[in-house]
Design a protein that fits this description.
By secondary structure, the protein is of the alpha/beta class. It contains 11 helices and 16 strands. The chain has a 6-stranded mixed sheet with strand order 8-9-10-5-11-12, sandwiched between helices. Strands 4-3-6-7 form a 4-stranded antiparallel sheet. Strands 14-15-13-16 form a 4-stranded antiparallel sheet. β11 and β12 form a beta hairpin. It binds adenosine-5'-triphosphate.
């Protein structure tokens, strides 16, 4: 961890390279306990009895379609909104009863870009340090600027920055007080490949050094690559929670993809994912692949650009959201 004198690493690495949970027996990094949230006098149920823990040092993904409740959960965690029921805590500090201590442990990168346009990047980060009572923070601010590709923008005014640059400042802002728990709410929405790589390299390094990370994203390939465990929300409820590798192991293992202009035989339509001319079908084994290809041949469906590969997290996500998998 990028340790400051006040903050002890929550996870360290033994000489074998194996991660060691230095806080074993301590509180979870994040605890969501029977959390519910309703809007409009109970008419909209955004969260319904959500419970799970995130361990210190984990890289945890929270996935779900639009409206599943991810932002509602993060708003409660950040103290921006109150749960209708249940509790949330950060390293043992309740986000309502012990808000100041809970907030100090959190670095939150929000979805929305909100800044005071009159300050420079460095001033923005100094002001944010001041909110957390951190003085003489320029060395760490310089390190953040360097790692997020902002070194040459330190004196630029916030209003002069592009959207992608502003998002980098948002990340730096969340990290000024070296929080042990980092929450990223769709940090790569609409940002270019270069920033994604810079951002993920840096966040992965912080995670290796012991910081806990909670990520929400619609980019499932990012979640698959980065997250140790994943929870999936659907209509405010947790419908899946497991190690990423277990989620992948439980899915139909093979993906067939091809292009066609013709209609699919009825027996295949139900399980097909169709995007324009591109059709994707999952199969559990080689026999099922053969059966699908035979069905297409018998129905005289002309196919182009056939590819057969391994199913990925997107396939798992769709299976779970469609309710075709427990
Ligand atoms: N302030 C609000 N007033 C009324 N309903 C709301 C409010 N905020 C969220 N909702 C509703 O609560 C549900 C969950 O919304 P939420 O924004 O938490 O989902 P989300 O998973 O973050 O979605 P997205 O992926 O689109 O950001 C949705 O039905 C949404 O319409």
């Amino acid at each position: 961890m990028l340790a400051s004198p006040q903050q002890q690493p929550v996870v360290s690495r033994a000489s074998t390279g194996a991660p060691v949970d230095a806080s074993a027996g301590g509180p979870p990094a994040l605890r969501f306990s029977h959390v519910s949230k309703t809007y409009r006098a109970g008419q909209v149920k955004a969260l319904d009895d959500v419970s799970f823990d995130i361990r210190p040092g984990e890289f945890f993904g929270l996935l779900g379609p639009n409206g599943a409740g991810k932002t509602s959960l993060i708003s409660i965690l950040a103290g921006l909104s109150r749960a209708s029921g249940g509790q949330v805590s950060v390293l043992g500090h309740d986000v309502v009863d012990d808000y100041a201590n809970a907030r100090k442990k959190l670095g939150i990168v929000p979805q929305e870009l909100v800044f005071d346009p009159f300050f420079s990047v460095r001033e923005t980060l100094r002001i944010q340090s001041g909110y957390f009572g951190v003085r003489n923070n320029d060395d760490w601010i310089d390190e953040l600027l360097l790692n997020l590709g902002l070194a040459d923008k330190a004196h630029a005014n916030m209003r002069q920055l592009s959207g992608g640059m502003k998002r980098r400042v948002l990340v730096a802002q969340a990290l000024v007080h070296r929080p042990p728990v980092i929450v990223l709410d769709e940090p790569t929405a609409g940002v270019d490949v270069e920033l994604r790589q810079t951002l993920w390299q840096f966040i992965a390094r912080l995670n290796r050094e012991g910081h806990t990370v909670l990520l929400t994203t619609h980019y499932l390939e990012e979640a698959e690559a980065l997250c140790h465990r994943i929870a999936m929300l659907k209509q405010g409820r947790v419908v899946a929670l497991d190690r990423t590798s277990e989620l992948l192991a439980g899915t139909a293992s093979t993906m067939l993809q091809f292009k066609t202009d013709a209609a699919l035989p009825l027996s295949l339509v139900e399980n097909a994912r169709v995007t324009g001319r591109v059709v994707q079908l999952t199969a559990h084994d080689a026999l099922e692949v053969e059966r699908i290809l035979a069905t297409l041949r018998e129905a005289a469906v002309p196919i182009e650009d056939l590819e057969i590969g391994r199913a990925n997290l997107e396939d798992v996500f769709i299976e779970i959201m469609q309710g075709s998998r427990a």
